[in-house]
Amino acid sequence: MSLSDGSQQRAPAMGHDRVSPLGQEPEHRTVSAMIHVEEVGDGIFAFIQRDGSWYLNNAGIIPERKLSYFVDSAATVSRTKVIIEEARRLGVGDRVGMIATHHHGDHTNGNATIDPTFIVAHASVPAEMAQGFAVPPPGLFNDVDWGEIVVRQPDVVFERELDLQIGERLVRVLHFGRPAHTLGDAVVYFPQDHVLFAGDLAFNGGTPFALMGSVQGWLDTLVALRALEVTVVVPGHGDPCGMDVFDGIERYLRFVLELAGNALREGVSPLEAALNTDLGDFAQWHDSERIVGNLHRAMAELSGASPGSPINIQTAFVDMLKYNGGPLRCFA
């Protein structure tokens, strides 16, 4: 672990929010999106990558004297190094744990770069990571400098819940028993602070994506999420927000299910249904081409596929490229 020389620094006061001085080191000069750290609870920091579109995820940093924690990493080596720099400034030492909210590369590609003492994730994550989606195939996105990605699997897995003691606070890592965004979505809940790192169960300003999970399972998961006492939600993508973020996600997922049902009755494909659909207010969310992947999943489920069961991911992405008229935008 090479986060710091082991010395501890005093964390900034509540309200810490500043843009990182990107470009100080040569490997960071290509990192162009706005990045900032925001204190979302007392000593709980969110690493926010704007605008939250493809592969611009959020992460968490919880500095503690004996054992600090990260929530997720980043999609590229250069962006993960910025997380490490911020962790140093916040007083994170050499001994750290990590909690992975799910397997997607934007949240896990930087795991080996951080090199934590251990990584915690849901029990389905190792098999999901082994499918090989860390770096997307050429032609799917515009060119991205991913760096040398080394896949680092979790060391500790759990099924439904795992309680951690981070300093003086209890932290609960929860899985709600059903596929949603993926099979292994975990949230990191700080019950004393009323803070929730929701992973990609929450998109703020971006289109939810259920291709590798379940549309209905996500709707069911929202019921469990709303039972938590939360003031601040750190979404997987987008700025921190309140619990009302789940209202928009629910409306969108129900829109997808209705559209999928109509497409099945009319005998049209997911791509045809998407091309002939007015997204209405949802068109303002970035990455709207995800409607195609969501329809692939929803139509499969309405046709009898079990939630989260394998479907043809490659076909869905090819259709998303057709809908988009070319490679998907990615500013990572």
Detailed description of the structure:
The protein has 332 residues and is of the alpha/beta class. The chain is 27% helix and 20% strand. The protein contains 9 helices and 13 strands. The protein has helices spanning 77-89, 105-108, 111-114, 125-129, 215-226, 245-266, 270-275, 290-302, 313-324, and strands at residues 17-19, 35-41, 44-49, 59-62, 68-71, 96-99, 118-122, 156-158, 161-166, 169-174, 187-190, 195-203, 232-237. Strands 1-2-3-4-5-6-7-8 form an 8-stranded mixed sheet, with helices on one face. A 5-stranded mixed sheet has the order 9-10-11-12-13, with helices on one face. Helix 5 packs antiparallel against helix 6 (245-266), helix 6 crosses helix 8 and helix 8 (290-302) crosses helix 9 (313-324). The protein is globular, with a radius of gyration of 19 Å.
Summarize the structure in short.
This protein is of the alpha/beta class. 27% of the residues lie in helices and 20% in strands.
Distance separating the two termini: 24 Å
Would you count the extended β strands for me? Answer: 13
The best one-word shape is: globular
Percentage of residues in helical conformation: 25-40%
Q: What's the total helix number?
A: 9
Poorly predicted spans: 1-30
The main sheet orders its strands as: 1-2-3-4-5-6-7-8
Mean pLDDT across residues = 91
Question: Which secondary-structure class do the elements indicate?
Answer: alpha/beta
Main beta-sheet strand count, sense and barrel state: 8 strands, mixed
**Strand content bin:** 15-25%
The SSE order reads: EEEEEHEHHEHEEEEEHEHHHH
Radius of gyration: 19 Å
